[in-house]
Design brief:
Layout (H helix, E strand, L loop, with lengths): L2 E15 L3 E8 L3 E7 L18 E8 L4 E11 L2 H4 L2 H17 L7 H16 L6 H15 L17 E5 L4 E4 L7 E2 L2 H12 L10 H19 L8
Parallel strand pairs: 3-5
Antiparallel strand pairs: 1-2, 1-4, 2-3, 4-5, 6-7, 6-8
Helix pairs in contact: 2-3, 2-4, 3-4, 4-6, 5-6
């Protein structure tokens, strides 16, 4: 229904449009992913200032018209994440996290738990920029897949339920597989299996550190699961 809307939102992406406007890709708790135009925001005297840049957490006032593109009519900052913006690694990690979220949850369906996950991730990166690691990205993506309903099965064989002799990972089956069901899978060693389990079960702040080989293998498991079950193509972490 057309009319004014008030919502919290995180700016996932901001794109220049025309001489002075910006197109914003936003994620909201109750409207999911949406797009809006901020008119005149690039002018020096814009009332929005710099608060419509990526990764700002905002209280927004929007006007919904007949098109899919809403119009920003008001904005107040909840969190600007200034420390995150001052750190190159944290800034890049925030960008990758927002890109992953926008790919997995690319609709207007409400997912308040996903919005809360994003805000928690940005808060962590702002307070602890040293957490801007590849391991953080793996853990964040796993939690996105969990919220989307297609997190990989890690506790037992995804094909037969066997809890022992888990030797591979099958994107088609949806998780780890045992030696009897390993056809069509790729090898998954015990260290990578443990890392995936820990990254999924722990908070983002408690994500363990591992070597790059484990990260690459875990990323493959996540990316191929997302592609097979969610038809989502994620960018490589490394």
């Amino acid at each position: 229904m057309a009319g004014p809307i008030k919502t919290e939102a995180v700016v996932l992406r901001s794109i220049r449009y025309g001489e002075a406007d910006r197109i914003l890709h936003l994620y909201t708790p109750m409207r999911g992913k949406l797009s809006a135009i901020a008119k005149g925001v690039r002018r020096s005297k814009s009332r929005f200032g710099g608060r419509l840049e990526p990764f700002f957490w905002l209280n927004l006032e929007l006007h919904e018209g007949r098109s899919d593109l809403m119009t920003v009519t008001g904005a107040k900052t909840i969190a600007a994440f200034a420390a995150l913006r001052a750190d190159e690694m944290a800034l890049g990690s925030a960008a990758r996290a927002c890109d992953s979220l926008g790919r997995v949850f690319d609709s207007a369906e409400p997912h308040p738990e996903v919005f809360n996950l994003l805000c928690s991730a940005l808060t962590l990166l702002d307070r602890h920029p040293e957490r801007a690691t590849d391991e953080f990205q793996v853990a964040f993506r796993l939690k996105l897949l969990l919220a989307a309903g297609f997190a990989p099965q890690l506790a037992a064989c995804a094909s037969c339920g066997e809890a022992d002799r888990l030797v591979g990972f099958s994107p088609a089956a949806g998780g780890v597989v045992c030696g009897s069901c390993e056809a069509g899978s790729f090898e998954l060693d015990g260290e990578t299996h443990r890392f995936l389990t820990d990254a999924l079960g722990r908070s983002l702040a408690e994500t363990p550190s591992v070597d790059q080989r484990v990260i690459a293998l875990a990323d493959r498991a996540i990316s191929e699961t997302a592609a097979h079950h969610g038809h989502v193509r994620l960018k490589a972490i490394a």
